[in-house]
Design brief:
21% strand, 10 strands, globular, eight-stranded mixed β-sheet
């Protein structure tokens, strides 16, 4: 099976550059850097071409996307496209503030043995929020199929057909990339998740996140109220859609 890794890295995030080079040396498969889409370089026309402020899908997403979230979504689409362009069987997509723990190589081996062309296997940074049946196991390592995939885009192994399907389903989007992928009825991709947790997010050691941006007090309060409401709607609708 032809598998490579892609590390999404923003060029101007210089504090992360050294970590990225070290991570490339430690990964058990060949890797390369995908230049992240820079929010500071996105113009109004660039945003209008891909982002719809009016919700495209139910449940409606209650917040406008920040420009950094749009850039993040486009960066992941860029990685999905690289999987297709390189004619890979699967690609391991990694954000540049991720580090791997002991046992990751063994877990990746199980994921590569398990993945089918239309599969997407998450390597989450925490286990909470995902409940589902186990579909593969090797020793202490397992792959499970959550009823509702968790949030976060730290690391994923993506099959070629899954990358093609996700590109087709997200030419225009109305919410963050991880929330979009939770909506399994929008695409034919089988969403899976690896256990136990073998990755860590180390953004605070590398200068902090480049996605969240600053929020006003009113924005924080609005999110505190509307976020749980949206998540309940999403959970209920996911049960209806199956």
């Amino acid at each position: 099976m032809k598998v490579s890794a892609f590390i999404i890295h923003l060029k101007r995030a210089e504090k992360r550059g050294e970590h990225v080079q070290a991570l490339m040396q430690r990964l058990p498969i060949a890797s390369e850097i995908i230049d992240a889409v820079d929010a500071q370089q996105l113009g109004k026309s660039d945003i209008a071409a891909v982002y719809c402020r009016k919700s495209l899908h139910f449940p409606a997403y209650p917040f406008d996307l920040r420009i950094t979230e749009i850039a993040c979504f486009l960066s992941h689409r860029k990685a999905w496209q690289a999987i297709v362009d390189d004619n890979l069987d699967a690609g391991l997509v990694i954000e540049d503030d991720v580090d791997i723990d002991a046992g990751f190589a063994e877990q990746l081996k199980l994921a590569v043995e398990t993945i089918k062309p239309a599969d997407y296997i998450r390597f989450p940074r925490w286990p909470r929020g995902e409940v589902g049946g186990e579909i593969a196991r090797s020793g202490d390592m397992s792959i499970m199929q959550p009823k509702l995939p968790g949030l976060g885009m730290q690391m994923q192994l993506i099959g070629r057909d899954a990358a093609i399907a996700l590109l087709a389903a997200t030419e225009v989007f109305d919410r963050p990339v991880d929330t979009t992928l939770q909506m399994r009825w929008l695409h034919p991709v089988r969403m899976l998740s690896a256990r136990p947790i073998t990755i860590r997010e180390i953004d605070f050691n590398l200068g902090g996140t480049v996605v969240q941006g600053k929020k006003t007090l009113s924005d924080k309060l609005k999110r505190e109220v509307l976020r749980p409401y949206y998540r309940v709607l999403l959970f209920l609708y996911s049960k209806i859609r199956g």
